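[worker-b] picked up task from shared queue
[worker-b] task type: protein-ligand structure
[worker-b] ligand name resolved to zinc ion; SMILES cross-checked against name lookup, match
[worker-b] sequence length check passed
[worker-b] input payload:
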Amino acid sequence: MASEQRFLGELLSRRGLVPADRLEALYATQRERGADLLDLVVHTNVADEIAVAKVLAEEAGVPLVERIDPAEISTALATRVPITFTKAHKVLVLREDDAAVHVVCADPFDTQALDDLRVIFGKPVEATVCGRDRIEDAINRVYEKQAGEEQLEGDEGQTAEDEVASDILDSDEEAPVIRWVNSLFLQAMKERASDIHIEPEEKEVIVRYRIDGELYVARRAPRPFMNSIVSRIKIESSLNIAEKRLPQDGRITKKIAGKGFDIRVSTIPTSRGYERIVMRLLNKSSVLLDLPDLGFSPREYALMDGLIRRPDGIILVTGPTGSGKTTTLYACINRINQPNLNILTAEDPVEYEIQGIHQVHVQPKIGLTFASALRAFLRQDPDIVMVGEIRDHETLEIAINASLTGHLVLSTIHTNDAAGAITRTIDMGAEPFLLRSSVIGILAQRLVRVLCPHCKYGYPAEPFELEELGLTAERMKVRAARRENPNSRYFPRNVAGGDLFEEFDVTRRPTFYKAKGCNNCTNTGFTGRRGIYELLLVDDAVGPLILKKADSQAIKRTAQDMGMDTLRDDGARKVLAGLTTVEEVLAATQEDVEVEGAPGMPASAGMRSATTTGAE
Ligand SMILES: [Zn+2]
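[worker-b] inference finished, payload out:
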C-alpha cells in the first residue's frame, strides 16, 4: 500500500502538481491518518481534482471525463457492486456491453479494484478517469436512487423500476404519496436524522432533517401536495384529518429496515393556511449505548462507574435540552442492569425499552407525574430508580427520601454546569444537610460534533487556541500539583495513564483538526456527536459549601481545586484527540461563560472566572 502511495506522490510531483518538498509531510499525514494520498492532495487544496485526474489519465493512457451524468447510469447494473467497495476505491460502473464493462475511476493505477470488477462482471474492464469528488457525488446519487426505489418493510405496495422518489409526486393518486412519505422515513433513518420537519413555503413544500443537532434541507415537493402529505401523516398517526385549525399530537409506530421506531408527530396550523409538521424519530431497538461508549476520559469513566455501583445516593445529570442526558442515564442503567436488582424508571416519554427493567411513561394529564410515579416506586421494593427529570420540590423531596432510605436514584436537572445543580436544588427548597448526605455526584454534559474521518485535516494549533482551551504551561503545572493532593478523590489509583492532559507536552505545538466537508458527511465536515463532561463529586471539600449555601462559583472553584475537570477541560481533551474542533468546544461551553456572569454576580467577575477556568 505504502509503495503505491509513494508511486502516486512521485508521479504528481514529477508532473508539477505537488511541490517535491511537501511530499514527505503528505506521506506522514497519510500514514498517521490512514488516509488516501490522492484524497489528501485534493482535500487540502494542494491540487484540483480534475488536474489530478488529467495527469493520472495521461500517465495510464486512458480517457479523461470531466463530468458524470447519473441519469445515464443503470442503477440495477451499478449497484451490483457493494457501495462500500465503490466508495473505498472511488470507482463506479457506468454501462455494460458484449465486449466489456465500462467504469469510471479516480485512480487508474488501482489495478486491484479494476481486477475485482473484472471478476464480478466476468468480462474485461474499460476504465475512464474523473475527479474523485465528482465520482463520489455520482456514487451517492446512484445508490440513493436505488434506496428510493426500495420498499419500506411491511408496505405491500409495488414500485416501478426506475421511479425516483420526488417524481412520484407528478401523479396525484394516493399511492405515490404513501410511497413518498414512506421514503421520507427511510431516508431519515439512513441519514441518522432525529427529526423530520415538513413545512409549506410560498411555492413548495420543504422537508428538513435534523442531523447531529443541525437542520438540513433534504427534499422539496410541489406545494399542491402539501394537503395530501399532511392527510397521509395524520392517518398514520391517528389524528383528526378534518381538524386544521388546532395543533395536534400523535404517534406512529413503524418498522423501518428492521428497526422499530416510535415517531412522535406534532402539527400546528400556520398563517399560510397549511399545517406544519414535525416528527421526532425514537429508535426503540438499537442506539442503547454502554457506559464505555460515551467518550469519558479513563479517569472520569472510573469515577462514574464507581458512583453507579454505590448502594444509595443521588446522581444527577445536568445540561440543556438536547445535550444527551437521557442517553447517559440509559447507559448507566444498562451498565448496572442485573437480574438481582429491581430497577424502575419514570420517563417522559420512554425513549428506549431496556430488557429487564420496568419503565413507566408519566402522563401528567391523568395525574401520573414524576412525583407520583416515584412515590409509587418506593412501594415496589426497588434497588435503583430513575426519574426523567427533577423540576419541582415534591419530586426532589421524594428523591432525597428514597436515597436516604437506601436506594440509588438517577435523574436529570436543568442547569448549565455541575455546581449549578447544587444551588438549583437548594432554590427548589431542599434542606442543605439532606442534600449533603444524599447527592453523591453531578455530571454536566454537552454534545460536540465529531469530525468526519474522511475529510478532516491537521494543522498546528494556534497559541490563542491553546490559551482558550487552557493548554498552557502554567495551567498544566497547576493540574500536576492537584494530582499530588492526597485528599483528592478525583484521581482513582486504579487508573494509570491514558489521560491526554497528563501526557500533554507543553513544549510541543500539538496538531488540531478541522474538516473540509465531503460526500461522506454531506459537506458538513462532521459525522455524529460525542459528549463532553464535567463530573463533580460531593466530597469533604464541597460538602461544607452546600451546608452554608455557597454560590455555584465557589463550589465550582473548590471542586476544580480538588481536581475536577470542567466541560471546557474535557473539550480540550477531545480537541487534542482529534475528535472535534476548537470552535465546537468553545461554542458548546460558551453558555457556561454567559450564565456564570448572570444572576447576582457582576458580569466581569463571571467572565473572568469562566475564561480562567482551570487556572486556579
Ligand atoms: Zn467529510
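[worker-b] attaching auto-annotations
[worker-b] The chain is about 40% helix and 20% strand.
[worker-b] releasing lock
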